[in-house]
Specification:
By secondary structure, this protein is an all-alpha fold. It has one domain (2-234): Growth Hormone, Chain: A (Up-down Bundle), CATH 1.20.1250. It contains nine helices and no strands. The longest helix is centred in the middle third of the chain and has 25 residues, at 72-96.
Length: 244
């Protein structure tokens, strides 16, 4: 139990000299963002995810089989936009590769811009979940999530890839005491799961009970925090800012 609590605390507040520095908490914030934008896309734009591409592959199959409520075009567009966003993150890494903090700052800034456009559309379009606006929003948000996912992959912080929890959950169970493991990283993995859950919960509540794009606005604010923090904390090229 103490090991789990310590692992969780060091994820939220990394100790001095940690090789990933503030990347742990910043990527946790991005995991919350994933929950927020996927809540908006699934509930407002139909049965489509903009960050969880595993779900979209399954939805694509459902649509091809003729299942009601699934859009072949929306799922395919999300997959393509996500891939293009990830490719864009590769270009950013090529440009700023040795600087992990700068890569994160640039990526988060671009995602802020994309999300800001989506928020504007959500508040100005009468029904953003239909017609051309639906596909524009899917493309924008999936492209931004692809940027985020590609960058998280490059940063290579264990168990914090921000958009996928399947392997995180598997690792959490595999290393549990029940499985004969050491539980050494359960705190961090548990926080990743909680972060996405909370993001999705807040996104769903705001979508269903408050205001349609409010979840996206919260996501945009969190992305701004990540962008500013990553840029500020990487000044002077600290050790964590260098490639692992």
């Amino acid at each position: 139990m103490l090991t789990t609590v310590t692992d969780a605390w060091h994820t939220v507040a990394p100790p001095e000299g940690d090789r990933h520095g503030p990347l742990h908490p910043l990527l946790l914030v991005l995991t919350v963002v994933t929950g927020l934008i996927d809540a908006f896309s699934y509930l407002e734009l139909g049965h489509v995810f903009v960050a969880n591409m595993t779900g979209n592959v399954v939805f694509l199959a459902f649509a091809l089989a003729g299942a009601k409520g699934f859009s072949l075009a929306a799922s395919a567009l999300a997959l393509v936009a996500f891939a293009l966003g990830a490719a864009g993150s590769g270009r950013i890494v090529t440009r700023f590769g040795p600087r992990r903090g700068r890569v994160l700052a640039v990526t988060a800034t671009l995602e802020v811009v994309v999300t800001a456009v989506a928020v504007t559309m959500g508040w100005t379009v009468s029904d953003p979940g239909t017609g051309v606006s639906r596909f524009v929003l899917v493309a924008l948000l999936a492209g931004g999530a692809g940027l985020q996912s590609g960058t998280a992959r490059k940063l290579a912080v264990p168990d914090l890839n921000t958009t996928v929890l399947t392997q995180t959950l598997a690792g959490l169970a595999f290393e549990s005491r029940l499985a004969g493991g050491t539980s050494s990283q359960i705190g961090r993995r548990g926080l990743a799961v909680v972060a996405m859950f909370l993001g999705a919960l807040v996104g769903a509540v705001t979508e269903l009970r408050v205001s349609r794009p409010l979840g996206l606005l919260i996501a945009m604010v969190l992305l701004m925090v990540v962008a500013v923090s990553a840029a500020h904390l990487s000044r002077g090229r600290p050790d964590w800012d260098r490639p692992t």
